[in-house]
Amino acid sequence: MTISASGATAGFSEVSIGFAPQRLQGTVNNRPFIGCESRSGLFHSIPSLDPWGCVVPMEILSGAPIFIDSLRVVVSVNEMDFRRGDQVRVQWQALGGSGGSYTSQPQTVVEYTSLHFAVPDKTARQFEGDRVEVIFVIERDGIALPSLSLHLTFAAELLQTGPVFIDAVSQGVLQVDQHPNGVCLTIPRIENLRTNNAIEMTWKSSAKGGQDGAWRDYQRKLTVSPDSSLGFWIEPTVYQAYRGETVHLFCSLFLGTGMVPGLTYGMGHRGVLEFRLV
């Protein structure tokens, strides 16, 4: 693996990254894809969707226990583009401010199965906030065959500016009769929020309370506003028939693009409310 800060801003250069093959011949009609592999062994592909491209959230590079050194660049090996014995490496080049580049150690094609290239968190964090062009290169008989490009963005971590709240809840209590038309849950503005993010809210309640209560409401906001707070309207039917129960309400965020289920991110104590219905 090599990583450099060459100051290049215009895509890949085989020579500037440190490779000088005899010649380039054509382009592989394929491109890599990216995802992360949790400690449980599950692989979560991060899709590239217009207009955002492929967004890699910095949260998965920040020491979360299930996502340590989890970033993977994956090359799908097929019989059309590859031969057994090919050497394959992954390269990327920053297109913005960081000016860095990265080249993986090569892997050898043994079978026609996907190759996974693990990228250390320490390496990936150097590209925070930047847009990066990613390719793979096949080395065969002294010839370098580059792939099509994948573009990805390393999105800054989301920062909550305050805890979620319901104005109607006072001293841990919601008085049902005083709110016959519903109540509003407010999520204060979140710094670095992007329009590719989504936010969801789950409302559970039971006589005993806690997270094991029955689901009473679930909502997801696909359209988020990076510059303002966000509101969820709670219909009165969610709570009117459950006087005496304790509500456990919690909020979470979808990171990256495409609402990958494995990349939901809890808001911690700032995204949790517990109160009684009286």
CATH architecture of the largest domain: Sandwich
- Ranges where pLDDT stays below 50 over 5 or more residues in a row are 1-24
Fraction of residues in helix: under 10%
Content of β-strand: 35-45%
Q: Give the C-level CATH assignment of the largest domain.
A: Mainly Beta
Shape: elongated
Largest sheet: 10 strands, mixed
> What's the CATH H-level superfamily name of the largest domain?
Immunoglobulins
Overall strand count: 25
Radius of gyration: 24 Å
The secondary-structure class comes to mainly beta
Q: Quote the distance from N terminus to C terminus.
A: 62 Å
The ordered H/E elements are EEEEEEEEEEEHEEEEEEEEEEEEEE
Please, could you describe this protein's structure?
The chain contains one helix and 25 strands. By secondary structure, the chain is mainly β. The strands form five sheets. Strands 1, 2, 5, 6, 8, 9, 10, 12, 13 and 14 form a ten-stranded mixed beta sheet that branches. Strands 17, 20, 21, 23, 24 and 25 form a six-stranded mixed beta sheet that branches. The protein is elongated.
